[in-house]
Amino acid sequence: MAVLVTGATGLIGRSLVRSLIAEDETIRILSRDRARAMALFGKRTVKAFAWEPATEEIPTAALGEVETIFHLMGEPVGGRWTKAKINAIVASRVTSTAKIARAAKGRRCRFVSASSFGIYAGERGAVYEETVTLPPPASRIQEILQAAEHAVASASTPEMRVNMVRFGMVCARDGYPIKLVRLFRKGISFIVGDGEQSYPSLI
Fold it and tell me: Which of 6, 80, 122, 156 is 20 to 30 Å from the Cα of 47, by its Cα?
């Protein structure tokens, strides 16, 4: 049996694929940049398929004998939200999820999809559990995240188990903090909010 991973060239995806390689799993990758995926992991350890979710359906061969799908693909949300940027975010998070859900629906496998703590309202002092009822989206990113999660849920059947992982800020040596460190070393720093704003934590 095989494991299918999207977003394999991202921070979390790289770690996941390397752990799967260490466990000698059969790995298939869907990537918008197949050449980069192959360069990162090597053609002997993974089989990568080029996929542009905005315009293409999933290659049929990528789903062969797959028993677990890790959907981590997502255009970074940082930066200026131009029309092109928004389209890329929607394609990578909503369109891609809907296409995977349609292609995999009815299969006997598990579908694990990445989401974000940004889906919550973030009211000061509030504690959010996974069972909380989400209010109508109050921002563009919440609208996108809710649409993506609805797409994941649509794939749920007695044969397919679906899970959505709402990540908080992921810190790693080659991840988010290094960007801030570079700014601070140049003498550039800033204060975000008033120090009392909401942030995700595990309880």
Answer: 156
Tell whether 37 is covered by a domain: yes
The pLDDT tens digits for 83-117 are: 999 999 999 999 999 999 999 888 899 999 999 98
> Which helix (H) or strand (E) element contains residue 145?
helix 140-153
Count of domains forming the chain: 1
Task: Specify if 197 maps to a domain.
Answer: no
Q: Helix, strand, or coil here: 19?
A: helix
163 in Cβ contact with 111 (< 8 Å) = yes
The pLDDT tens digits for 137-170 are 989 999 999 999 999 998 898 999 999 999 887 7
Q: Which residues lie closer than 8 Å to 158 by C-beta, 6 or more apart?
A: none
Distance separating alpha carbons of residues 1 and 68, to the nearest angstrom = 9
